[in-house]
Amino acid sequence: MTDTPIIALYYREHDPMKRKMFLDQSIAAGEDEVANAVRKELWELRYGEPSEAGSGTRADGYLALWMAMEYSKDTAGKLFGLKRARKEIEKNLARLKFREMQEKSELHRELLYRECCHMVKTYMELCEKDKTYNTTLCGIVPISEKSAKSKLQKDVYTTAIVFPEEINMQEELEMITRAAREAYEAHFPGEGGLQR
Fold first, then answer.
1. How would residue 21 be classed by pLDDT, with cut points 50, 70 and 90?
2. Which DSSP symbol is given to 195?
3. What distance in Å separates the CA atoms of residue 108 and residue 115, rounded to the nearest whole number?
4. Strand partners, 58
5. What CA–CA distance (Å, rounded) separates 112 from 38?
6. CA–centroid distance for 80 within its chain
7. Using an 8 Å Cβ cutoff, are 163 and 73 in contact?
8. 6 pLDDT tier (thresholds 50, 70, 90)
9. pLDDT tens readout for residues 108-148
10. How far, in Å, CA of 115 to CA of 187, rounded?
11. Cβ proximity of 125 and 149 under 8 Å
12. How far apart are the C-alpha atoms of 176 and 114, rounded to whole Å?
């Protein structure tokens, strides 16, 4: 499936309302009606909740899922942590109708996968821009670009590859693991990608 110029912008944009604007433009132009109907359905699920940033903004449910995985990976090893981590991830997946979307059609699966790639790309780009993410010693001393890259690689690897195994949810999170590998490879081309 080749993207129209408007849909290419849709997948490059991180801001939920700008993404909706591009999608609405594509729909108004009569482009790829079947795929756009699925994209609209996925957009509604992903950005269904209003954001704490104020009216007219939307929270990113996929990023919330990623952050739940990110947070839970640290507590999963602790007593009762595994069960709580699974429950938290299952709750997020259910809210996003993750399984239902995969079971609807091949097109739903393909476009859901693209949203997962977009989620990982968004996360990596936000981390690179975040001053506190790229610092050590209580957020005072900036770390080198090489250290920042290896920190990001380790985060993506442990969140998308190690954590699903730890909580025995490889199957449920397989699409996110695959998307993380692809998004990482696209972000850091020719560096071998995420191992294992």
1. very high
2. -
3. 10
4. 50
5. 9
6. 26
7. yes
8. very high
9. 999 999 999 999 999 999 888 876 766 655 555 666 667 77
10. 16
11. no
12. 10
Ranges of H-type helices in 13-105: 16-28, 33-46, 61-75, 81-95, 98-104
Which one, of 169, 50, 146, lies nearest residue 99 by Cα? 169
What is the torsional sign of CA 161, 129, 13, 187? negative
Residues 46-66: b if buried by 16+ CB within 10 A, e if exposed: bbeeeeeeeeeebebbbbbbb
CA-to-CA dists, residue 190 to 87, 149, 187, angstroms: 37, 14, 10
Of all helices (H) and strands (E), which one includes residue 154?
Answer: helix 145-157
- Which residue, chain included where needed, has tokens 């259910």? 94
Q: Give the DSSP H/E element, type plus range, for residue 107.
A: helix 106-129
Query: CA angle, 58 as apex, 38 and 32 as ends, to 5°?
Result: 20
The tokens for 54 are 């104020």
User: Is there a contact between 74 and 88 (Cβ–Cβ < 8 Å)?
Assistant: no
What are 147's two structure tokens? 């250290």
> What angle (nearest 5°) sits at the alpha carbon of residue 73, between those of residues 61 and 135?
85
Residue 135, beta-bridge partner list: 142
**Residue 48: strand, helix, or coil:** coil
List for the chain the helix, strand, coil content (%; round to 5).
Answer: 65, 5, 30
